[in-house]
């Protein structure tokens, strides 16, 4: 399926981009990224219009990029500012630019129609700016899989019991019902596991000695940003759904960026209301997250391989697929909307619709 291009995707963390030219790809569009002298991150098309050499193979000269083949030079607005050996600058001598947004140590890039970017909000959460919460950037998980499968995995609480039995889940949740809501802009799936032993993650970071009530809330923001709200509280606390802040609560954020149809990067980080300011805790959490996400990677890459092979029969769908099914339909609708142009209501129509 084609990509949704009119969207903000994470290119990486702020610390990943400096003065040097860096090549990245988002939705099969090659870009060269660098931080200009004023500190702003710049994203240009990574292809010289002359002989098509990637500009990332050239060099930075001040706030311009010089092609490494014949020296054509481009400014941060994409316009050619120099053609060695001639004074005139052809109008066709330019490269595309891509809107960039940087906040909370995250760099977002818009690979679609530039004019639409300003009116589209960038994902945010109040906890980013709340001193009672700790934000920690993790890694970029590289997967040889289509981004839709990766995103679907992030609105699927049911898989946790089987894929992550020692870290994020356990057998205690296998038959606990999953609730799904598709009424809003986000697709939400959730469940509570009552009065059970803490999972491996919260054995390490919750300090629990007895059974807990624990929860998983999965929020999928189109096209592919996922927030997993999970946590635990002592059974005696008898927490209600809207009291999760009273427990040990963590938001695992997954910014799923499609590189190509067969390659996806999941930039992951977390927000937590425990061990605030404790970097040792962050490093230990990262170790457990890496174990869990490596389990996801193994599953998703194996699925992708099988999807490329001939199918003997139609795949089946079961009850837990409600969220992913709605997600796929919404993605198809977005792709279709980008592929067509709506001219609006006609002034003098000769076609009259009655249904």
Strand segment count? 17
Give the distance, in angstroms, between the N- and C-terminal Cα atoms.
31 Å
What can be said about the biggest beta sheet?
7 strands, antiparallel
SSE sequence, one letter per element? EEEEEEEEEEEHHEEHEEEEHH
Q: What is the top-level CATH class of the largest domain?
A: Alpha Beta
Q: If you consult CATH, what is the topology of the largest domain?
A: Naphthalene 1,2-dioxygenase Alpha Subunit, Chain A, domain 1
Q: Could you tell me the mean pLDDT?
A: 90
Strand content: 25-35%
Q: What's the CATH superfamily of the largest domain, by name?
A: Naphthalene 1,2-dioxygenase Alpha Subunit, Chain A, domain 1
Low-confidence stretches are none
Q: What structural category do the secondary elements indicate?
A: alpha+beta
What's the shape?
Answer: globular
CATH architecture of the largest domain: Alpha-Beta Complex
Radius of gyration: 23 Å
Continuous helix count = 5
Strand order of the largest sheet: 11-17-16-15-14-13-12
Helical residue percent?
A: 10-25%
Q: Give the domain tally.
A: 2
Protein name: Toluene-4-sulfonate monooxygenase system iron-sulfur subunit TsaM1
Organism: Planktotalea frisia
GO molecular function: 2 iron, 2 sulfur cluster binding; metal ion binding; monooxygenase activity
EC number: 1.14.14.-
């Amino acid at each position: 399926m084609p990509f949704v291009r009119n969207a903000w995707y994470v290119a990486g963390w702020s610390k990943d981009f400096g003065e040097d030219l860096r090549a990245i790809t988002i939705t099969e569009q090659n870009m060269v990224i660098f931080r200009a002298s004023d500190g702003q991150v710049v994203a240009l098309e990574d292809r010289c219009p002359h002989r098509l050499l990637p500009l990332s193979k050239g060099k930075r000269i001040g706030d311009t990029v010089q092609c490494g083949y014949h020296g054509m030079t481009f400014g941060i607005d994409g316009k050619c500012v120099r053609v060695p050996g001639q004074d005139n600058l052809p109008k066709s001598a330019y490269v595309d630019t891509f809107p960039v947004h940087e906040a909370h140590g995250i760099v977002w890039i818009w690979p679609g129609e530039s004019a639409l970017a300003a009116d589209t909000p960038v994902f945010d959460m109040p906890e980013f700016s709340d001193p009672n919460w700790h934000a920690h950037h993790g890694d970029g998980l590289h997967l040889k899989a289509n981004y839709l499968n990766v995103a679907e995995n992030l609105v699927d609480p049911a898989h946790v019991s089987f894929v992550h039995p020692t870290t994020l889940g356990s057998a205690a949740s296998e038959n606990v019902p999953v609730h799904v809501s598709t009424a809003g802009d986000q697709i939400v799936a959730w469940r509570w596991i009552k009065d059970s032993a803490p999972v491996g993650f919260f054995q390490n970071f919750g300090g629990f000695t007895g059974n807990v009530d624990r929860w998983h809330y999965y929020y999928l923001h189109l096209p592919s940003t996922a927030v997993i709200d999970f946590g635990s509280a002592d059974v005696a606390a008898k927490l209600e759904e809207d009291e999760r802040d009273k427990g040990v609560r963590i938001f695992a954020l997954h910014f799923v960026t499609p590189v190509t149809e067969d390659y996806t990067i999941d930039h992951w980080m977390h927000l937590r209301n425990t061990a605030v300011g404790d970097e040792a805790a962050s490093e230990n959490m990262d170790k457990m997250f890496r174990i869990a996400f490596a389990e996801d990677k193994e599953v998703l890459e194996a699925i992708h391989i099988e999807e490329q092979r001939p199918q003997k029969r139609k795949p089946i769908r079961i009850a837990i697929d409600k969220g992913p099914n709605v997600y796929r339909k919404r993605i198809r609708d977005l792709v279709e909307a980008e592929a067509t142009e709506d001219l609006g209501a006609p002034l003098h129509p000769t076609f009259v619709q009655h249904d």
